[in-house]
């Protein structure tokens, strides 16, 4: 006797009689209904398994064999991992990198490529996740944290937040009145000469004429050379006083690790002073390496070779500017100065090692000692 078919419930080929037929009808209906109930679940699991296998195969195919392409993927992975995630994921990542927390302040390590404030085209920014971060740190009833200052989108490092708005205003006033000591680390293309000094050149914003009109900050010197003599010129009313102390911490023939201490806080001050004042642009500064155009930074062959890249891939190099230290005066119940140090991001540390630059060791007070970069 043939088994019933599920194509038509209750259908059977041959049997001993009507009673057998009715029995087969009941059995086949039960069998087919059970199979129909389980089939979609099994099919769904099978489809998910096939999709996972397909993704794994595609990932293996995408893994480049070319060392330059591998290096590009490494840079992209280091610098873009938090730019397109859910706000909850970003808040969780920030909470894992807390540098300091007390009843007044929370100090975070700002990742690369994330703007502090929102704006046109901005999908995710630090200010968006402050309410979530506050709840992670202080429970679901916590009020949102408040920004005390800002860092550029491409700059990494120490960022101070406050629990209360009035505390945030106090810290903002400290920044405005230059009571806060800030120290940045930058990798530069070429080596500043002399190896330590002060750049005191006003800065203003200008429109750049070209194929694509845009605005940049630039120098507005108070003096110019006239027949071999230094002549004072009239100060542009739009120019801002800008003063930067700098010191070379380590150098090779074509690059340097430089510590920068901005005395003033003009927009893009450090990048402009390094590029246009000292002719040593920050590695990965695709905006200020060339005044006339917006284009990937042109790098010496030696640097490209050490970084494992070609010039055509230089656009993937991130800005190597890091807010390394911050010293805040006494605030509220805290009677002593707060000294904050933020470790380098992975891409920055890897570039130091590739370029053969030494990173000084630091004690708890921030004093520098010569030392070699440890692998991370």
TrEMBL record:
* CDD domains found in the cross-reference section: PseudoU_synth_RluA_like
Protein location: Mitochondrion
One Pfam family cited in the UniProt record for this chain: PseudoU_synth_2
Q: Which GO terms describe its biological process?
A: mitochondrial tRNA pseudouridine synthesis; mRNA pseudouridine synthesis; positive regulation of mitochondrial translation; rRNA pseudouridine synthesis
According to the UniProt entry, the coiled-coil residues are none
Q: Mitochondrion: present as a keyword of the record?
A: yes
Keywords from UniProt, A to Z, are:
Isomerase, Mitochondrion, rRNA processing, Transit peptide, tRNA processing
Gene Ontology CC terms, in alphabetical order:
mitochondrial matrix; nucleoplasm; ribonucleoprotein granule
Q: What is its main location?
A: mitochondrion
User: Which residue range or ranges hold the Pseudouridine synthase RsuA/RluA-like domain?
Assistant: 104-275
The record ties this protein, via Gene3D superfamilies, to:
Pseudouridine synthase
Molecular function (GO) terms listed? mitochondrial ribosomal large subunit rRNA binding; pseudouridine synthase activity; tRNA binding
Per its database record, what is this protein's job? Catalyzes uridine to pseudouridine isomerization (pseudouridylation) of different mitochondrial RNA substrates. Acts on position 1397 in 16S mitochondrial ribosomal RNA (16S mt-rRNA). This modification is required for the assembly of 16S mt-rRNA into a functional mitochondrial ribosome. As a component of a functional protein-RNA module, consisting of RCC1L, NGRN, RPUSD3, RPUSD4, TRUB2, FASTKD2 and 16S mt-rRNA, controls 16S mt-rRNA abundance and is required for intra-mitochondrial translation. Acts on position 39 in mitochondrial tRNA(Phe).
Oligomeric form and interacting partners = Interacts with 16S mt-rRNA, mt-tRNA(Phe) and mt-tRNA(Met). Forms a regulatory protein-RNA complex, consisting of RCC1L, NGRN, RPUSD3, RPUSD4, TRUB2, FASTKD2 and 16S mt-rRNA.
PANTHER family assigned to the protein according to its UniProt record, in alphabetical order: MITOCHONDRIAL RNA PSEUDOURIDINE SYNTHASE, PSEUDOURIDYLATE SYNTHASE RPUSD4, MITOCHONDRIAL
Q: Which family does it belong to?
A: Belongs to the pseudouridine synthase RluA family.
Name by which UniProt lists this protein:
Pseudouridylate synthase RPUSD4, mitochondrial
Annotated source species: Sciurus vulgaris
Gene (name only): RPUSD4
